Amino acid sequence: MSLKLGDTAPNFTIPTTAGDIDFHQWAGDSWVFFFSHPADFTPVCTTEMGRTAQLAPEFDGRNVKPLGLSTDSVEEHLKWIKDVDETQNTTLEFPIVADKDRTIAQIYGMMHPGESETAAVRSVFIIDPNKKIRLTMTYPMSVGRNFAEILRVIDALQLGDKHRVATPADWTPGGKVIIPPSIPNSEAESLFPNGWDEVKPYLRYTTV
CA–CA separation, 117 vs 124, rounded Å? Predict the structure, then answer.
């Protein structure tokens, strides 16, 4: 199954380290950072799980629930969490899906035969409160995720939803944003009372 931006994230009910969850019900009115791993007790994954746990206040502040996935059992996950906490100096509290038969990995397109026939690649799905997929990223097995970028993307998506703006290359919070061409100047005047810098008719910078 090939999931695209704007698709509804498929629902599922599955065991996790926090008990059985119905994904859509568990997500509720929150955003979700859903990310997969090749296996438990692997070095790169251990650092990523630890980093997600360390960033719990950052995710909470953005109304984002992290949800991990690995193709091992709940029992293995719980043993692995002890290693994560010990080696990464943290306390992992978010749930990890136990996708032993790879059903969810298949539904979400996390299985890439060119990388592995048996392990899920490092997929990222940012899912909004309407259960719509807003961003996907796929990393190779050997490359750890950039969590600063994941938080930046969430900030950009949430800012865009709130203010109807786009963000330029290398945008970071507090930086100038772009008024989309779909918004005419007559409407922009009420939306952006601070005005804007018109470089080209289609390129208007402002602040929000």
Answer: 19
